[in-house]
Amino acid sequence: MGEISRFQLGVIGALFLSVASSVSIVICNKALMTNLGFPFATTLTSWHLMVTFCTLHAAKRFNLLENKPIDIKTVMLFGILNGVSIGLLNLSLGFNSIGFYQMTKLAIIPFTVLLETVFLKKQFSQKIKLSLFLLLVGVGIASITDLQLNFVGTILSLLAIVTTCVGQILTNTIQKRLNVSSTQLLYQSAPFQAAILFVSGPLVDQFLTKQNVFAFKYSPIVSAFIILSCIISVSVNFSTFLAIGKTSPVTYQVLGHLKTCLVLGFGYTLLHDPFTQRNIIGILIAIFGMGFYSYFCTQETKKKLSDPLGSQMKDKDGTVYMGLEKEGEQVKNTDKDSHV
């Protein structure tokens, strides 16, 4: 029982750190991009990843991080895939309306469920699916304002969904099957993610904004916000890998929509963004969906823990939930902010 309690505390800590750091960086980036006019989201993300790698490398030099070798081909492909997914998400927002982009984000959960069901043989009960549906409806009501379709934008969105889902599933799978920690995986993959975004970022940003990141006039306040954003990104990147490793890709996406609701609320209270009755209703529905998801997952996991042999026969890989785990396993915001 003590091990379960420690694991629950670890999960709660990972989820709390992920929410707190993500909301913080969204608010910081919103001020940087909207108020200070720095629109280079993809390039900023490459800086985030470089700072994250340098921080972890310093931790390794001071013996605060144990480096565990991972097959270079696996790490390289994983890092490149994650870097490409970030670029595709930013391009998707550039070619689509914000409403259609939000639809793209919402589609990640059902597509992840589909991939895990087909390829990993994981099982999701009807109650879990219903709670996820309720969550998606709520977030959709709260955040989707317009839907404008175009062929190029749709193709980019589909590619972004596929690469994001596969990347997050691999984040969980690599940690489990190779027995590496979240920081070890992040440390070894961050250079490849940063490299592909460092090369492609300025090109993507110039294509989307018609501005050159190297010709931008960096005032002291802009530079200060960029530094602050990079510092917060270390916590964001670490907590993302930690949360996916301790829970599951689906749970992490549920957490991402909680961040969306919090960002809408903070945007209204701190940045005085428009807030309507529709936003309030959507957020409340989404919160109910998250609550049901957490409750049903916890109840099902307790049932499976009481019958471990039956659980293993049904699902060899295991499915991870918010708060507890089965045996054998453990967001861009609504405006034009960067991925981390």
From TrEMBL:
Membrane-crossing ranges are 38-58, 70-93, 132-149, 155-173, 185-204, 224-245, 252-271, 277-296
Identify this protein by name: Sugar phosphate transporter domain-containing protein
Q: Which keywords does UniProt give here?
A: Membrane, Transmembrane, Transmembrane helix
Q: What Pfam families does UniProt report for this protein, alphabetically?
A: TPT
Q: Where is the Sugar phosphate transporter domain?
A: 21-294
Superkingdom of this protein's organism:
Eukaryota
Membrane topology, as annotated? Multi-pass membrane protein
Gene Ontology CC entries for this record? membrane
InterPro entries in alphabetical order:
EmrE-like, Sugar_P_trans_dom, TPT_transporter
The cellular location(s) given in this protein's UniProt record come to: Membrane
